[in-house]
Amino acid sequence: MNNTQSNMSKWSVTSRVFHWISAVLLLITWLLILLYENLDSNLYIGLHKAFGVSLLFWMIARVINRVFTKAPPALPMPAWQLWVSKLSHFALYATLIAMPLAGLLMSVYGGRPVDIFGLFQIPVFVTPDRSLARFFNDMHTDIIWPMIIGFTLLHIAAALYHQFVKKDNLLARMK
Ligand code: HEM
Ligand code: HEM
Predict the structure, then answer these.
(1) The domain 3-173: what is its CATH number?
(2) What are residue 121's phi and psi, to 5 degrees?
């Protein structure tokens, strides 16, 4: 497929903005936890939570946008690749919502309100429960996070494959 054809079937502007800002928010949230793990400062864990909650709201808005805007028709590819892409896109949506939810629930079940950039606080809206706090902590760090890493790496590998092996200009649809 040549340039002109793939440019004709681009993602909508809103979908493209939602896509790249989600990626940047994920990167920032991850960098903040790395800073926290290495420098052990309350500033970074606080910012990690605030950016994580921002990503939650961003993903909810992104899903609503996805329901109401038309996706461009898929590029020609083997059926199995189409299925893997659909499945992994769905998994990215699901895990990027489940991850901040688990973080939020681990905090409130641990009895800690969540401060959002000093603007407002999400109060402890549940009865604190240590075992549930632990459960959501385990989900956050041991289950959902490895899934996000796996699906994101698969996603980027697929983008590189389209760009440099198939050379079908898929990336231009999202630029
Ligand atoms: C998509 C958004 C988020 C991502 C990608 C993310 C990612 C991570 C990662 C990678 C870790 C380190 C896990 C490890 O120890 O190996 C972590 C820890 C943590 N996250 Fe998140 N997080 C997100 C959202 C949130 C939210 C919204 C909150 C709370 C409101 C939160 C609270 C925490 C806390 C308290 C820890 C430290 C847990 C511990 O030390 O045991 N996270 N997060
Ligand atoms: C260098 C990094 C990235 C590149 C090059 C990239 C590229 C792309 C491209 C080209 C598409 C459109 C595929 C198509 O037209 O069929 C796409 C879709 C998508 N990307 Fe990425 N992406 C990147 C990072 C990410 C990250 C970090 C996430 C997760 C936060 C993500 C989540 C998604 C999702 C969920 C879709 C499907 C969109 C939909 O069906 O609504 N991407 N990406």
Answers:
(1) 1.20.950
(2) -120, 140
**Cα separation of 144 and 97, whole Å?**
10
Distances (CA, A) of 46 to 17, 103, 114: 26, 12, 8
Measured at the alpha carbon of residue 83, what is the angle toward residues 69 and 13, in degrees to the nearest 5? 25
Q: Residue 99: CB within 6 Å of ligand 1?
A: yes
- Please indicate whether residue 29, judged by its CB atom, sits closer than 6 Å to ligand 1: yes
What residues contact residue 21 under an 8 Å CB cut-off, 6+ apart?
Answer: 58
One digit per residue, the tens of pLDDT, for the chain of length 175 reads 444 444 458 999 999 999 999 999 999 999 999 999 999 788 999 999 999 999 999 999 999 999 999 999 999 999 999 999 999 999 999 999 999 999 999 999 999 999 999 999 999 999 999 999 999 999 999 999 999 999 999 999 999 999 999 999 999 999 9
For a mutational test of ligand 1's pocket, the pick from 48, 108, 148, i.e. the residue with the most ligand atoms closer than 8 A to its C-beta, is 48
**What are the structural domain ranges in the chain?**
3-173
Residues 93 and 147 sit within 8 Å (Cβ to Cβ): no
C-beta 48 within 6 A of ligand 1:
yes
- For residue 173, which atom of ligand 2 is closest to its CA? 15
